[in-house]
Design brief:
Blueprint lengths: L1 H24 L3 H14 L10 H18 L3 H6 L1 H8 L1 H18 L3 H10 L5 H8 L6 H29 L6 H30 L5 H21 L4 H15 L7 H30 L8 H24 L10 H9 L5 H8 L8 H31 L9
Helix pairs in contact: 1-2, 1-13, 2-13, 2-17, 3-11, 3-12, 3-13, 3-16, 5-9, 6-7, 6-14, 7-9, 8-9, 8-17, 9-10, 9-12, 10-11, 10-12, 11-12, 11-13, 13-17, 14-15, 14-17, 16-17
Amino acid sequence: MAWNIERIEILLLIAGIVSMLARKLRLPYSVGLVLAGIGLALSPIRVELALTRELVFSILLPPLLFEAAFHVEWSAFRRDLPVILVLATGGVLLSLGVIAFGVVLLFHWHPALALLLGVLLSATDPVAVLAIFKETKVSERLRLLVDAESLLNDGIVVVLFVIAMAGIMGEHLTPISMASTFFFTVLGGMVCGALAAGLVLGLAGQSEDPLVEITFTTIAAYGSFMVAEYFHFSGVLATLTAGVIVGNIGSIGAISDKGHEAVTAFWEFMGFIANSLIFLLIGVQLTRQNLHAFWYPSLMVILLTILGRALTVYFCCGLFANSPLRVSRPHQHVMFWGGLRGALSLALALGLPANLVHREEIITTVFAVVAFSVLVQGSTIAPLIKRLSRKTPLLTQE
């Protein structure tokens, strides 16, 4: 454990330095972290802290999800809920369908494995996108659409992953059993999150000590996730639900004004730490993947993922073209190119059974897609926003 703590300290020191340099170079710091991770892996310094499913799911993912959900404004979320739901449900199905069909057509994989890969790559990463958006002052609606869609499709993808793995492992699945599994996993996760948030807010309301209030919100983030996972519900949706409730109800009295400022600052710090560790370790782990052996399937899947994202955004937003919820074309362009993949896809891929057919190829391909989305899309989305803002007011005022 001591060695792990020392390695974490080294990684956090690197993250702080990279963050300062990235700001001066006007480079998204998530991109800088991945590049720093690659450089670290190629240097004489050995950091043996591995990016594993347990590390991401048990330690890093809950604070990332809670921090993002904490800042979602309920009134704006409710107003755009139809668009968000279509993107997070129909969009996920459309994206995974494109990827799965392409993999079967190009590489003749078994349809179940192709669907599994499609599921893994259908979750967009709210952390990577928001890290970039914080430095590029986009409109509040665009920020909400990207943030909320990413948060919800994370929860949907985890549930679909459970169903896909059940099918691959030989369980008998029927449309009714899949629908019931989906429904109860989603509903159970949301109930766990709501109960955790209600308990925490009730306790926090009895104290005006910011440290106590921070402690209770930490319990809400991790506790909701662990309880939901224990009962085989969606821990992702539990933490998201808890974050939205605490962020909205806590700000109107359950948490003191002084405590709200402290809680907000604390979760921004927690998000920075978790975000930094994930992207640094992505860079480190990327150098260990057999990209040379799987370069062609990785390239093809990257193209399929981009195609799936394009169809998701333009088709789903097109459904609202003649309604008050219409999404402007420049906003759609940013949502398309801002559909980065990240921690959740990697965590699910790293947790695949050791005896699964094509496991190494799947993991390497997922790493390649994540690396492309962070390094290429992540480094070009800010110039894209600035270019589009010349014609449409995408950027808010300073």
